[in-house]
Amino acid sequence: MSDFVIERVKTGIPGLDELIEGGFPKGDTILLAGRAGTGKSIMANQFLYNGATEYDEPGVLVTLEESPHLIKRNMMRFGMDLDALVKKKKLAIVDLSPSKEATPMKIGEYPSFDLSGLEAIILNHVKKLGAKRVVIDTLAILAYKFRSRDILREEFFKLAANITRADTTLILTSEIQSQHDGLGVFDIEAFLASGVIVLYNEMISETSRSRSIEVLKLRGSKHSSRIHSMRITDEGIRVWPAEISTGV
Fold it and tell me: Model pTM?
């Protein structure tokens, strides 16, 4: 048997690393999918925050929907001071949200026909910070900028390949409109992501919901194939590896 060991990037999210052999394979592209309100953005930001504060791995957050001001405010509720990380050059926030508060974009830097402008901006921040973690939240916004699904797939394949080339781990978030849809706005899991994690927030009675998480796939890893209980606590996402949810 080979002694080859895949280097892992710990998420630092309580309970999650136990499901994925200690962390994500370094340099992989991971998709976080789920319906609105399932905790995708919280988990993605928690991944960045833990990387910067616990593992000395700076990160880059690309926000395409929510303004940096709201992201910072919301994460402070979980005790995560993203603004402090920005000041310490442990985190860079690329603002492509409608407000464009943090990083005003010049016309031509974000062309609608390709992602070369976005790629250049991300790689510039990765180089300046020595970033090892990148989050793009969320893919749905980018999908609306492309008429051709094939072109979009090609552009995102190039973007992800160039970001992860230097062993930088990339997290993408994508929203599922309903439980009957695919795992993304253009089935990204089929051609791009080496790992797919799905978050659920299902109605179990007229007055309550149950949150859970499933590692749908993670190439090169022995991962749990079950659906596990998950909560959004005062410290962020927490997973219970030993508890199996039957609400999904």
Answer: 0.88
